[in-house]
Design goal:
The complex is a heterodimer of chains A (276) and B (220). Chain A has 276 residues and is an alpha/beta fold. Helices cover 40% and strands 12% of the residues of chain A. Chain A is elongated and about 75 Å long. Chain B starts with 43 loop residues before the first helix and ends in a 16-residue tail after the last strand. The chains are: A alpha/beta (276), B alpha+beta (220).
């Protein structure tokens, strides 16, 4: 849970554009431009496409950064403010509030070539058609599950920012709003730490049947992953300590299955932790 | 065949509460309400369904087709010249994908090659830009491609990136491994703190680095 507004203050003071990754939030829950971001990026593979079917990404220009003023203050953005060749005006002059996106497309995406397949583009724009509906369900189920997990004896802690017990609850509520009972609507990807460290995590993960053991988030299907031995396996131990990536930590991505079924699945997995 | 040309007695009245988007709606019995191309005044749920769509002038396809074409035909010699020198956005003012005389979106440009732009991706780009409240979006192959392209448009050799500490693992790897090896950019990650007066200050984490490779390591 990042305090976007504070960071945006710092960036603005230093005439620097702020890039925010809104993959986990999605515009259905939060729109970073409203909090001071200048550029938003996405892994469209996740909630936007929504069905786990197509890898993709996106860059969105907020059209709200003053590139010329930043350069006057000492920064340098040649791809946006300088002419690429004789006779062609700079992007800023030709495309105004879309200049950054145009520079990204023509200078970088064109040259390096990370092209999105039109098949994936189709799956992306079709997936987005149901974004708000899906996010609504993802959040509703996640709040129910996070609250339930906090009560389980085999659970050491739950890291869901929308729970009042979370250190960032106030920021969560300010930026994401609350449901009817006052829980912050902070998405559907969160951490749960089980007893027993690595062995507890192993027993838990092996005991799940509806949750899929895989990398990925933001799918109709619920997923579980052990960060320490996967996404964070290449990081130094001191860094993982600082980030709170511990042996008993699991990352859950709650899907669209019935919340009661998911709770039963989690309870069966926790039974295995209890049996250790 | 233009599906909008078929008059319907049902569609002659603008829906109540539709806001500015109904400009151009007709209430006479003879004509059909004009199609909507600019969805900006409509709600989030409406825009997630419609923003970026364009009418198919060939068969009236309701859903935009999957544009499986790597290349695009040029009208003539001058058309090719103009597309490559960037002097035009679309082939002709009256022949854009949104119908006669309609303005084209900032995402659209006279296409040259699907590496830089493709109609299926334009729909997604416009839809996303609309939902995020941005101006223009660019679709790429993956989230990692989005982050790297976004940053390489801003920074290059010798530049410095500043990041929060709690970032996606893939982002951290990109900063630590790829950008330092290929583009000689250095990064600092840290957490924000608030001074007693309440303003925000960025506190960089000290890092140990050898001169040519920068890797952030926690020291406290």
């Amino acid at each position: 849970m990042t305090d976007l507004r504070r960071i945006a203050e710092v960036a603005a003071r230093h005439n620097l554009p702020l890039v925010v990754d809104n993959t986990v939030g999605t515009p259905a829950l939060i729109r970073p431009f409203e909090h001071g971001a200048n550029i938003v990026v996405h892994s469209t593979t996740k909630f936007l496409t929504g069905h786990g079917s197509a890898v993709g990404g996106a860059i969105i220009d907020g059209g709200n950064f003053d590139w010329a003023a930043a350069e006057a203050a000492g920064r340098s953005f040649p791809l946006i403010t300088q002419s690429a060749r004789a006779g062609v005006a700079p992007m800023l002059e030709r495309f105004g509030t879309g200049a950054y996106a145009r520079a990204a497309r023509e200078s970088v995406v064109n040259d390096i070539g990370p092209t999105l397949s039109p098949l994936h583009g189709f799956l992306l724009h079709q997936g987005i058609e149901t974004l708000s509906l899906r996010m609504e369900r993802h959040v509703e189920s996640s709040i129910k599950i996070a609250r339930w997990l906090e009560d389980q004896p085999e659970v050491v802690s739950v890291d869901y920012a929308g729970l009042p017990s979370n250190a960032r609850y106030n920021i969560a509520v300010r930026d994401y709003g609350v449901d009817a009972e006052g829980y912050g609507r902070t998405g559907s990807v969160f951490g749960v730490t089980v007893r027993g460290g690595l062995e507890g995590a192993r027993a838990f993960v092996n005991g799940l049947r509806i949750f899929s053991r895989m990398t990925g988030i933001g799918d109709t299907r619920s997923m579980v992953l052990h960060p320490l031995t996967s996404t964070h396996s290449s990081f130094a131990p001191e860094l993982n300590d600082r980030l709170g990536i511990t042996p008993g930590l699991l990352r859950l991505s709650v899907g669209l299955e019935s919340a009661d079924d998911l709770i039963r699945d989690l309870r069966a997995a926790l039974d295995r932790v209890a049996a250790l | 065949m233009n599906p909008q040309a078929i008059p319907s007695a049902v569609e002659t009245q603008a829906a109540p509460g539709a806001g500015a988007g109904t400009a151009g709606a007709s209430t006479t019995a003879e004509s059909t309400a004009s199609p909507i191309y600019d969805w900006q005044s409509f709600g989030f749920e409406t825009r997630q369904v419609h923003a970026g769509e364009y009418p198919d002038k060939n068969h009236g396809l309701r859903v935009p087709p999957i544009a499986l074409s790597a290349g695009y035909l040029f009208d003539d010699f001058d058309d090719q010249v103009n597309r490559f020198n960037g002097s035009i956005h679309w082939r002709a003012e009256n022949d854009g994908p949104r119908g006669e005389g309609e303005a084209f979106s900032p995402s659209e440009h006279a296409p040259i090659y699907s590496r830089q732009g493709n109609p299926s991706n334009w729909v997604a780009e416009e839809r996303l830009a609309s939902l995020e409240g941005g101006t223009v979006a660019v679709a790429v192959a993956s989230g990692q491609a989005a982050i790297s392209a976004a940053l390489f448009t801003l920074a290059g050799r010798g530049d410095h990136l500043v990041s929060t500490a709690s970032i996606y693992g893939g982002t951290r790897i990109l900063f630590g491994r790829s950008s330092s090896a290929s583009a000689s950019m250095s990064t600092t990650s840290g957490t924000r703190t608030t001074t007693p007066s309440g303003s925000a200050r960025f506190v960089p984490r000290p890092k140990r680095s050898t001169p040519r490779r920068c890797r952030t390591r926690a020291t406290t």
